[in-house]
Design a protein that fits this description.
The protein is an alpha+beta fold. The protein has helices at 2-10, 23-32, 40-47, 51-56, 108-116, 131-139, 160-170, 176-195, 218-226, 240-247, 298-314, 327-334, 355-360; strands at residues 14-17, 63-68, 71-85, 88-100, 123-126, 143-144, 152-157, 208-211, 234-236, 255-263, 266-277, 284-293, 319-322, 339-342, 349-352. The strands form 2 sheets. Strands 1, 2, 3, 4, 5, 6, 9 and 15 form an 8-stranded mixed beta sheet that branches. It has a 7-stranded mixed beta sheet with strand order 8-10-11-12-13-7-14, with helices on both faces. Helix 5 (108-116) links the parallel strand 4 (88-100) and strand 5 (123-126).
Length: 380
């Protein structure tokens, strides 16, 4: 009983607002919890150079920590972002880096509550929630984003042997024990891909071209201004300034490439592809980080998806993956007969300040959620 009492006392922590001076302790905490270590340069990018911070023109919380005896034992970050719903500008905040030491996890609710109750924010987002984080945010009134099948990843296999090797390693089979089933998986997937023609379809002769993040210019801002929906949809700000800030990440392990399409000398759409080796594996994965097309032109979307597929192959990736996006985009992807996998949990949650906006965002038609939203593609 005495030992239990001591353990209980050790597990008590207090909450306070985080500051940039907490970087080292928070970076150490996240690393202990199995998360990738961040850099102070990226922190300055997120909370000092962020266009949303500059637009707010006021002090904003960067997150909250749990502290015990002067030691940071829990953390939840808050990244300011800019959104547009119809012609209404919204100020949003996205969670990031939710990490709490095991003996203090009973107090994780304190961090989530501080995030959900922060003032001066129209929209609150968690786009990388684990199952336990989803339960915490649901208990605080957050809702799952009503964009269908956002917990189902679509993917095409580009290197069948590498994918088979990855599949075997996931089952704990390596070395000589995995060679025969690995070879069988590779043969079956290759034959299936060939005969079922599993690849994005393009039924147009529209041309595309590649563009580095540093080359994103005012043409992208013009595309953002030109976008006109018959019905309002919630979209993250995609001006040239915001796109460069979002994807120019210090010390990033990802390679990011924009692929663009023009009509009549105007930029009418782009797809952004990020490629990296999955942490702890040998599998190189390309992901569609964003896709933005004027008036959702089907021909342009098809051309960009086909170009993304070819880019991923040339980049040496083993798979090309798509997560998120509304059904209108996913139906176009489905024409290429991708494979599917269900994510471990529903990762996308939101909260809204204001009854009118809350009612409007309850509709699945109101959302255009991609990996560009929240913190999904903001990290190295």
């Amino acid at each position: 009983m005495i030992e239990a009492g001591k353990s209980e006392r050790r597990a008590r922590a207090t909450r306070r607002e985080a500051s940039l001076s907490d970087f080292e302790q928070i970076a150490d905490l996240k690393e202990r919890m199995g998360m990738r270590r961040d850099s102070i340069e990226n922190w300055r990018r997120l909370w000092q150079d962020n266009p949303a911070v500059l637009a707010a023109n006021r002090a904003l919380p960067i997150g909250w920590v749990l502290e015990s005896e002067g030691r940071v034992v829990g953390y939840l970050g808050s990244i300011p972002l800019l959104y547009l719903y119809g012609d209404r500008e919204l100020f949003a905040a996205a969670t990031c880096g939710f990490a709490v030491e095991p003996e203090y996890r009973a107090q994780a609710l304190m961090l989530a509550a501080a995030f959900m109750k922060q003032p001066g924010v129209d929209l609150l987002l968690n786009t990388t929630a684990s199952e336990s984080a989803g339960m915490i945010f649901r208990s605080l009134g957050a809702c799952p984003i009503p964009q269908e099948n956002s917990d189902v990843a679509l993917f095409w296999i580009l290197d069948h042997h590498a994918f088979a090797r990855f599949a075997m390693s996931r089952q704990g089979l390596k070395g000589s024990w995995s060679r025969l089933p690995e070879a069988l998986i590779a043969i079956v997937s290759r034959v299936d891909t060939f005969f079922r023609r599993r690849a994005p379809r393009m039924r147009t002769d529209l041309g595309t071209y590649e563009c580095a993040v540093s080359q994103v210019n005012e043409d992208f801002s013009e595309l953002w201004r030109m976008q006109a929906d018959s019905k309002p949809r919630l979209r993250a700000c995609r001006t040239a300034t915001m796109l460069r800030w979002h994807f120019e990440i210090p010390h990033s392990l990802r390679e990011t490439q924009f692929i663009c399409c023009r009509k009549d000398e105007h930029l009418v759409g782009y797809v952004c592809v990020s490629s990296e080796v999955i942490n702890g594996t040998e599998l190189r994965r390309s992901k569609v980080a964003d896709l933005f097309v004027l008036n959702d032109d089907v021909a342009v979307i098809e051309a960009l998806l086909a170009a993304a597929y070819q880019h991923a192959r040339k980049a040496g990736s083993h798979v090309l993956e798509i997560i998120g996006f509304p059904q209108s985009i996913r139906r176009i992807c489905a024409q290429g007969k991708p494979y599917r996998r269900r994510l471990p949990s529903w990762p996308f949650w939101y909260g809204v300040k204001g009854e009118t906006l809350n009612a409007e965002l309850a509709s699945k038609a109101a959302w255009y959620l991609t990996p560009y939203d929240g913190d999904t593609t903001l990290w190295p």
